[in-house]
Design brief:
The structure is a single chain. With 250 residues, the protein is α/β, with parallel strands linked by helices. It has two domains: 128 residues, no CATH class; 118 residues, no CATH class. The protein is 40% helix and 30% strand. The chain has seven helices and 13 strands. A six-stranded mixed sheet has the order 1-2-5-8-12-10, with no helix packed on it. A five-stranded parallel sheet has the order 3-6-9-13-11, with helices on one face. The chain has a two-stranded parallel sheet with strand order 4-7. A hairpin with a 2-residue loop joins strand 1 and strand 2. Helix 3 runs antiparallel to helix 4. InterPro entries: LiaF-like_C, LiaF_TM. Keywords: Membrane, Transmembrane, Transmembrane helix. It comes from Parabacteroides chinchillae.
Length: 250
Amino acid sequence: MNTNNKSVFWAIPFIFVGIVWFLKNMGIVTYSLFSILISWQVLLIYVGLFNLLSKRFWAGLITTAIGVVFILPEIGWSSSNWLHVYWPLIFVIIGVFQLFKPQRRPNTNFHQKHFQRNFQKHWKEEANTYSNTDYSSQDGFVISYNTFGSVQQIVLDPVFKGADIRNTCGGTVLDLRRTKLEAAQTFIDVECTFGGIEIYLPAEWNLQSQVNTVIGGCDDKRYHSSAETDQEHVLIIRGKVTFGGIEFKN
């Protein structure tokens, strides 16, 4: 892809975002559709297509696959539970393609073969080294560290005292519907990169977000019934989301 085509390719997202944002302000595009079209998942798919057109097959395939898998629950084509359980199968599929893809012609450059072998070895070592999940709840405080994995945790402590959640290229689900708040302010610190976090909590909890997002989102999707919001206790979410998303549900 030459320089002019690259300029056009990267100009399209800015034009697209501007048009969709304008249509949302005019009331033509709904908020739910806007949150799907302008999302980190769509950006990943777009970057993946760019890599494929630039003949970077594996980078394009991996990026596109991650974007597609994580956007399926948003458009209602799969449940979030399915996503958190089965999305690691992407790595299995990529590995199968790697094993059975057509071999290069005999005149392939030696350095390219050497690089491919080293890359495959490095990828396996990195996957084994960095795949990790560690989560616990002690005296009402939750710690959840998830890298290339899936975590589903239900807090059964009588009082919820806060959480520290770090999620990288994975899916984390935290269920707070069986506990309660006691302090005037309770904090959940999050750091999410290329992944998704779902937090289930009662509709009457007073939720405040102080999350900084970079090509990501933090959405309160709870169904608010007739129950009055608790004004004595506040749950504050703070931290950073990069190419990821946080959703609050009940």
